[in-house]
Amino acid sequence: NLRKPSSETDIENWASKHFNKHTQGLFRRKVSIANMLAWSSESIKKPMIMTNDRNVKKEACEIFKLIQMYMGDRRAKTDQLNVALEIATKGWSMQGLRDELYIQLCRQTTENFRYESLARGWELMAICLAFFPPTPKFHSYLEGYIYRHMDPVNDTKVTQHIKELLERSSKKKSKLRKKPKPYIEEHDGVAISTYAKYCYNKLQKAALTGAKKGLKKPNIEEIRHAKNAVFNPSMFGSSLQDIIGMQKERYPDRQLPWVQTRLSEEVLALNGDQTEGIFRVPGDIDEVNALKLQVDQWKIPTGLEDPHVP
Questions:
Q1: Which residues pair with 30 in a beta bridge?
Q2: pTM
Q3: Quick check: 53 and 90 in contact, CB under 8 A?
Q4: CB-based contacts of 304: which residues, under 8 Å, 6+ apart?
Q5: Superfamily classification of domain 8-219
Q6: Taking a C-beta distance cutoff of 8 angstroms, is the pair 125, 102 a contact?
Q7: What's the per-residue H, E or C state across the chain?
Q8: pLDDT tens digits for range 19-61
Q9: One GO biological process from the UniProt record (predicted)?
């Protein structure tokens, strides 16, 4: 049910109305929209999107550095998962920062021909979409950007460009007769269209469900799960057919979803059939989130007390 976005939702159109005017060089020349939407190894000195919010102004520049760290374009002081945790927590906690974060990710995944960096950028977008959507105003533009990267033709273009840059680099090496540190690496990783398809579906779900519910901030286990979910889909939000497919290896003879029967057993074990409001009264949302994380790893945590949670 994919719908092709109209040309009116091109991210350049949105940028021309909402971007700060950035300048560069001694004479403070204006940076074009195209350049502002292309990968950069430099940091930014002000947000990409116009805002009067002082907190967003401050955090926007910091989050750009964190994105560069996660993508491997800047040296990080901590490991990758903790960088992603800091980014996701900032976006989840500060609604005004979300569109800025997504536009920065769009920028760093445009004309980025260092494949490892590019793949990490898309991976980070998938992680962020697990915790919060963009605002409704920016939704269609982000949707259009992701949609255009779902075509495998784009994978071929990226691969071809990387190949050309490698050839150019090797020619320079032979002229210099020494081995400079290579900037572009060959790759045999996951196609960008695979990440884009996952992000597209995640964006649709995030638009319906909103940001992660509850009072507890994202944690490292949730970040790890969101990162792996690109290749290990969640049991929640998937079709019945997909869920049966997921459990085929573990439970080839089961005709009902393991998640449904296992949670039913937990409800009964906690006297759920005698509990007023069962299936009507919601369980504590933070406990539910923690349980979902465990279930997606095929575990049921011990120590559950409230039958409303399962």
A1: 23
A2: 0.80
A3: no
A4: 266, 270, 291, 310
A5: MyTH4 domain (1.25.40.530)
A6: yes
A7: CCCCCCHHHCHHHHHHHHECCCEECCCCEECCHHHHCCCCCCCCCCCCECCCCHHHHHHHHHHHHHHHHHHCCCCCCCCHHHHHHHHHHHHHHCHHHHHHHHHHHHHHCCCCCCHHHHHHHHHHHHHHHCCCCCCHHHHHHHHHHHHHCCCHHHHHHHHHHHHHHHHHHHHHHHHHCCCCCCCCCCCCCCCHHHHHHHHHHHHHHHHHHCCCCCCCCCCHHHHHHHHHCCCCCCCCCCCHHHHHHHHCCCCCCCCCCHHHHHHHHHHHHCCHHHCCCCCCCCCCHHHHHHHHHHHCCCCCCCCCCCCCCC
A8: 876 655 544 566 678 888 889 999 998 999 999 999 999 999 9
A9: signal transduction
Q: How far apart are CA 225 and CA 21, in angstroms?
A: 38
Q: Which residue's entry shows tokens 């923690």? A: 290
Structure tokens at 49: 């999107």
**302's tokens:** 């011990």
HSE-CB for 156 with a 13 A CA cutoff = 3
In the chain, domain spans: 8-219, 240-296
Cβ atoms of residues 259 and 297 within 8 Å = no
